[in-house]
Amino acid sequence: MTLSVVTQPERKLWLLFRGHELLVAVDDFRFPQHEHYAALGLIADEHHAVGQLHGLDAHVVRLAEDTIAPEGYHFQSLRSLLMIIDADSFSLAATASQVLEWYKSHRFCSRCGTPTEAHPRGERARVCPSCTYHQYPRIHPCVIVAITKNDTILLARAQRFTRPMYSLLAGFVEVGETLEHAVMREVAEESGLQVKNLRYFGSQSWPFPNNLMLAFQAEWASGEIVIQEEEIMDAQFFRFDNLPEIPPSGSIASQVIHATVTELAAKYR
Ligand SMILES: [Zn+2]
User: Fold this and answer.
1) Residue 183, SS3?
2) CA–centroid distance, residue 182 to ligand 1 (Å)
């Protein structure tokens, strides 16, 4: 009996963006797997390697704004996929989105204006052939904090929310600040409160457009709520078993709210 070996074309995973939307299968939201994205009848100028998922090499592609989804696929916003796809898939899509955005905005050297080139040893950097300046992708750290006061948690409705949803106080870390200082400053600015016993909870890459969310828990120390009206519509301490609408699952905001509420329930129920 002879054993014949058939060589399969090498499959890759394709993260195909049309603006902020990603091409996923209609039935199970998977990213397309093909030897080349052209197999889907799609055309693009460039693609970039972004890592691996389930043993397959993944590449990101920017499609033209007027691209029509091929049979069996549709375009879905990255934000909406957060609630649908698993954490590893979302992490890859988040990386892909940020890599694509970085390529788009670093085509020229920010020091001397010369068109940049790929890094000679394949690092994720754009290199200036004139002045040798290296431009790496940048992430912007943001802090988000769950503040408790006895059996309640502080939740705020931001002016930018389109739905009647309440979330946690959050903001960007400023130049020269520690994370702890950023939390204290944001809380004081947005709510007028002082907090204590700050604890790190966890982090999440937040590709809208290139943030790193660092979540904390803290306890109310002093002060009455005075909201910063340009940013916050309402802020209240809600009892753990009587919460308003909160952010969708999948976000670090949702995770830290649930963890904090579970702690309060164990203590006060
Ligand atoms: Zn330069």
Assistant:
1) helix
2) 33
The token pair at 147 is 């503040």
For the chain, give every domain's residue range.
Answer: 12-105, 106-137, 140-268
Question: Could you read off the pLDDT of 124-167 as tens digits, one per residue?
Answer: 999 999 999 999 999 999 999 999 999 999 999 998 888 889 99
Cα 168 to Cα 130: distance, rounded to the nearest angstrom? 46
pLDDT score at 208 = 87
Q: What tokens were used for 218?
A: 């803290």
The CA 127 to ligand 1 mean position distance, Å, reads 8
d(CA 131, ligand 1 centre) in Å: 4
- Give the distance (Å) from ligand 1 centre to CA of residue 175: 24
- What fold characterizes domain 140-268? Nucleoside Triphosphate Pyrophosphohydrolase (3.90.79)
Instruction: Quote the ligand 1 centre to 135 CA distance (angstroms).
Output: 10
Residues 29, 255, 159, 178, CA torsion sign: negative
| Cα of 118 from ligand 1 centre, angstroms | 13
